[in-house]
Each structure stands twice: as structure tokens, then as C-alpha cells.
């Protein structure tokens, strides 16, 4: 029988606030670049974090019928995303963002970098974050 490969997706939502502000720009430049998202008090999102095709090019195990146990994947998501990010101020509560602008692009990189350390090697394919219904970021570790 030919090797069977499957991609699995787990969707997880979390809420967080942040302020788009670069220390490399003046206050005026930050306001120009980030607009209302540069509000000194920040703003919030209900992020929908989609791990689309999170597991890539893995053979379906003949004994279990799975690529990986979804209970394990759920635990990794809890440890990497929910505990450190949910209901947090990204800029103040997550040390990574003390020196990195908390854009959704950088949030995707943060999640990738931390998730790839937890998952078995070669499993993570893509992190997709829906910041809003219209703004979506996809990161594949590139």
C-alpha cells in the first residue's frame, strides 16, 4: 500500500491586547505608520489562531490511524499559546515583545518559534492567525 500522508488542523482562539509602537521610530512616525493602533493604552483582538496543515508529510500510522494524537497537540497549544498569551497584554506580559513590535506577523513568528520546539521535528507546517475577519497572517518558518 502506498504511503498515506495527512495534514491536520487545530483551531484555537485567544484574546490579547497590544500597542503597535516601534522604539526605532519617533512618536510622530509611530502615529503615522500605525495610526489608531498606536493608541498609548493599546487595543485588543480576539485572535483566531489556525494551525492549518500543522503536521506535514507524515505517514498515517497503520496501528493508530493518526498522524499524531490530537490530545498531545492540544497540550502543546495550551503550553505555547494559551498560558503565555491568552488575556495578556502582549507588550507588557510577554518578554519577547519587549523589544519586538507586537504585530500579528511577529506574533505568528513567536508562536512558530515556540511551537517548533515542542513538537517532534518536522511536524509544524504553518501557523495562520486571523487578527480580524479580514486580516490574516500566514507564517511557515521562512
TrEMBL record:
GO terms for cellular component: mitochondrion. GO terms for biological process: tetrahydrobiopterin biosynthetic process. The keyword Metal-binding applies. Pathway: Cofactor biosynthesis; tetrahydrobiopterin biosynthesis; tetrahydrobiopterin from 7,8-dihydroneopterin triphosphate: step 1/3. PROSITE patterns: PTPS_1, PTPS_2. It is an enzyme of class 4 (lyase). Its cofactor is Zn(2+). The keyword Hydrolase does not apply. Its EC number is 4.2.3.12. GO terms for molecular function: 6-pyruvoyltetrahydropterin synthase activity; metal ion binding. SUPFAM superfamilies: Tetrahydrobiopterin biosynthesis enzymes-like. InterPro entries: 6-PTP_synth/QueD, 6-PTP_synth/QueD_sf, PTPS_Cys_AS, PTPS_His_AS. Keywords: Lyase, Metal-binding, Tetrahydrobiopterin biosynthesis, Zinc. CDD domains: PTPS. Belongs to the PTPS family. Involved in the biosynthesis of tetrahydrobiopterin, an essential cofactor of aromatic amino acid hydroxylases. Catalyzes the transformation of 7,8-dihydroneopterin triphosphate into 6-pyruvoyl tetrahydropterin. This is 6-pyruvoyl tetrahydrobiopterin synthase. It comes from Neogobius melanostomus (round goby).
Amino acid at each position: 500500500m502506498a504511503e498515506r500522508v495527512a495534514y491536520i488542523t487545530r483551531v484555537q482562539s485567544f484574546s490579547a491586547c497590544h500597542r503597535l509602537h516601534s522604539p526605532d521610530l519617533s512618536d510622530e512616525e509611530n502615529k503615522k505608520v500605525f495610526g489608531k493602533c498606536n493608541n498609548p493604552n493599546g487595543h485588543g483582538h480576539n485572535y483566531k489562531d489556525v494551525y492549518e496543515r500543522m503536521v506535514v508529510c507524515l505517514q498515517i500510522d497503520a496501528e493508530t490511524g493518526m498522524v499524531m494524537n490530537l490530545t498531545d497537540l492540544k497540550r502543546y497549544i495550551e503550553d505555547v499559546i494559551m498560558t503565555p498569551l491568552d488575556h495578556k497584554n502582549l507588550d507588557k506580559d510577554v518578554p519577547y515583545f519587549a523589544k519586538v513590535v507586537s504585530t500579528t506577523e511577529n506574533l505568528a513568528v513567536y508562536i512558530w518559534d515556540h511551537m517548533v520546539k515542542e513538537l517532534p521535528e518536522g511536524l509544524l507546517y504553518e501557523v495562520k492567525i486571523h487578527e480580524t475577519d479580514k486580516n490574516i497572517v500566514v507564517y511557515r518558518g521562512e
